[in-house]
Every structure is written in C-alpha cells, then in structure tokens.
Amino acid sequence: MPLLLLDLDNTLLDRAGPFRAWAEGFLAEIGAPAADIDWLLSIDADGLTDRWDIADAIRDRYALRIPSIDLVEELHDGVVGYTRLDPLVACALRIADDAGWLPVVVTNGSVRLEDAKIRQTGLDRYVADWVISEEAGVSKPNPRIFALAAQRARLPLRGAWVVGDSPEADIGGAAAVGLPSVWLHRGRSWTDTRFAPTRTVDSLIAAVSVVLAGG
Ligand SMILES: [Mg+2]
To answer: Which segments cross the bilayer (predicted)?
Structure first.
C-alpha cells in the first residue's frame, strides 16, 4: 500500500479564508479600521509567521493590554472555528483510500491547533494518521518528518507521493527526500529554480487523480 503524504493548511483545509474571517471580526471588535485587514494579512504572510509574532505585532500596533498568550488563543480558536472540511476534499480522500493509498497528513504547526482543526472538521475520519512538526521535533522540508510518517504507518517511503501548496516546505521537502510531488498552485506561478514539482494542479481532487494515474 503506497503512502499519500498530504499537507494540511491550504491543501486539505482552507486556511486563508478562515484567517481572513477571524481577522475581520477581530479588527471590528477592537474598533480598528476595516482597511487594516491588508496589514494583518501581510503580517500573517499566508500562515508563515509564527503566531506569537503575530500577537506581538497586533499588541504593538493597537497598544493593546491583552497578554500575548490570550491573543494567540483567540487566534487559534477563531481560525479553528471558521475552518470547514470541503466535501470535495473528503471525496478525493475517499477515492484515494478506495484505490489503495494510505492518506497521512504531514503538517508544520502546533499540536493543539493542528489536532483541533483535524478533529473538529471531521478530517480525522478521512486520513489514516497525522504527523505534526511540534510533536515530531522536526519540520518540513526536513526529510526526517516524511520518514517519521512512513515509520508510523509501517510503510516504505519509496512509492509515496507528496501533495501540498508550499514550494519550500512541501515540494522542497519532497525533492529533498527523493519523492514525486504535486503542487497546488492557488493562482501562483512556480519560481524556484532549485527544485520543481512533478505536477502542478489547482485542486486536491486533481492532485489525487494525478497520483492515481501514476503521475
Ligand atoms: Mg500549506
């Protein structure tokens, strides 16, 4: 049985939408101008910025007296609260499973947040396992996190595919470990010259059909 190693944010679960929804509500709540959403989105950098740094930036800009830990918690709970599993993603995972692939999530992030998103959306019913960088002690693109996922599934890494939206973490990680990959472009063009995805698609269901067709 081959492994299907899947990224979480903006691959299996939309993160950009829930982050924006939370951010808009939060700005309204503290009485900040609605136009500040652009600043908050740029600070977040599509999820690349550490959540503690986001909290500090918010506190500084609005001179808030809320402790950073409370802001981080609010961000966590807010984003999880807005996160939904797209039925087409559930369907794609079911198709992969029926075709004999073992879907395993490999995600960079905190145990608390990633675990909550996977369970509260019901995604846990569609994947065999999930490996979270905080708990693994190593993050994508380090090949060791993919090796750990394979070890936990008691399956060889050889024959696996990696699917994700991050050029560096997902596609760079697949290249580093010597696996083929599918990149979800989300409207972007590929620019990295050090490595490239095996295939580029616009949705998870398209990624699964590429993998099932053998590339
Ligand atoms: Mg991602």
So the answer is: none
